[in-house]
Write a structure and sequence with these properties.
Belongs to the PTH2 family. It catalyses: an N-acyl-L-alpha-aminoacyl-tRNA + H2O = an N-acyl-L-amino acid + a tRNA + H(+). By secondary structure, the protein is of the alpha+beta class. The chain has helices spanning 23-39, 43-51, 64-76, 107-114; strands at 9-16, 56-61, 81-85, 97-106, 118-119. It has a 5-stranded mixed β-sheet, with helices on both faces. The longest helix is centred in the N-terminal third of the chain and has 17 residues, at 23-39.
C-alpha cells in the first residue's frame, strides 16, 4: 500500500452553508475563490504548492460574519485571502458573499485558522 503524501502546502476553500445554493453553484463559487486566492499568492509558494499536487480542502461556515473573521485572521497572518461576492445572475441576489479562498499557504498555518471548520 502506498504511503499518503506529506503535503506541506494547501489551499482552503470555504463556502457559506447558510445560503441556499445548488451543488453546481457552490462548486462554481469555490472555483472562483480558488483562482482568485491563487492569483494573490507569491511565485515561490505557487510553485511549491503546484509541484506537490495542489492540495485543496473544501470547508463550510454558517454565517457571513464567520467568513469575514476568517479572512481577517488569514490576512493578518500573511495568507492570501479572496472573498467572493456573487453577481446575482442565477440563484442568489447580487452582492451576496458566497465563498472565501485562503492560500495556497503552508498547511500548518492554514490549520491554525481553519482547523475547527467542518468539511463541506
Amino acid at each position: 500500500m502506498k504511503a499518503e503524501p506529506d503535503f506541506k502546502y494547501k489551499q482552503c476553500l470555504i463556502i457559506r452553508n447558510d445560503i441556499k445554493m445548488s451543488c453546481g453553484k457552490k462548486c462554481a463559487q469555490l472555483a472562483h475563490a480558488a483562482v482568485s486566492a491563487y492569483e494573490k499568492c507569491d511565485k515561490i509558494t505557487k510553485k511549491k504548492w503546484f509541484d506537490e499536487g495542489m492540495k485543496k480542502v473544501a470547508l463550510k461556515v454558517n454565517s457571513q460574519r464567520e467568513m469575514y473573521e476568517l479572512k481577517t485572521i488569514a490576512e493578518d497572518a500573511g495568507i492570501p485571502a479572496s472573498l467572493i461576492v456573487d453577481a446575482g445572475m442565477t440563484e442568489i441576489p447580487p452582492g451576496t458573499v458566497t465563498a472565501l479562498g485562503l492560500g495556497p499557504a503552508k498547511s500548518e498555518d492554514l490549520d491554525k485558522i481553519t482547523g475547527d471548520l467542518q468539511l463541506l
